[in-house]
Amino acid sequence: MAETEIRVDPFPDAAALDRLWRAAWQAEGPADPQAILSRSLVHLGAYADDVLVGFVNVAWDGGVHAFLLDPTVHPDHRRTGLGTRLVRRAAELAAERGASWLHVDFEPHLAAFYHGCGFRPTEAGLMRLQPG
């Protein structure tokens, strides 16, 4: 497997993100990633031979709260520590850029992964705004 390089704020094109999303989630990627990423605090791309194989985005409120979104690793690169590297580096950069808190929502089967990245459990709420 090729060595992966983590790039800060790479602004991958829609086609690259779509290929990664389809492989990782069996779903289409964001329709307009540039609009999303232009408002991010930081985002990271993991590249193997210049192919996007991992991604994470950190949105923020413009103050002290940041939100980890879309941690994604191509199935061929999972269980290599890449997801943890992406999340930890995103957290470091979010702190450097002024965030004091990093929030993440996740499904129960991912609790061990996020605990390993340094997150601790908290109470939270979720409201669906669009029919799903």
Describe this entry's structure for a reader:
The chain is an alpha+beta fold. It has a single domain (4-116), classed as Gcn5-related N-acetyltransferase (GNAT) (Aminopeptidase, 3-Layer(aba) Sandwich). The protein contains four helices and five strands; from the N terminus they run βααβββαβα. It has a five-stranded mixed sheet.
CATH topology: Aminopeptidase
Report helical residue fraction.
Answer: 25-40%
> SS-based structural class?
alpha+beta
CATH class: Alpha Beta
> Total number of helical segments?
4
Q: How many domains, in number, for the residues?
A: 1
Distance between the termini: 37 Å
Order of H and E elements? EHHEEEHEH
Assign the CATH architecture: 3-Layer(aba) Sandwich
β-sheet strand percentage: 25-35%
Name the strands of the widest sheet in spatial order. 1-2-3-4-5
How many E strands? 5
Q: What is the CA-based Rg, rounded?
A: 14 Å
Global mean pLDDT: 94
CATH superfamily: Gcn5-related N-acetyltransferase (GNAT)
- Basic shape: globular
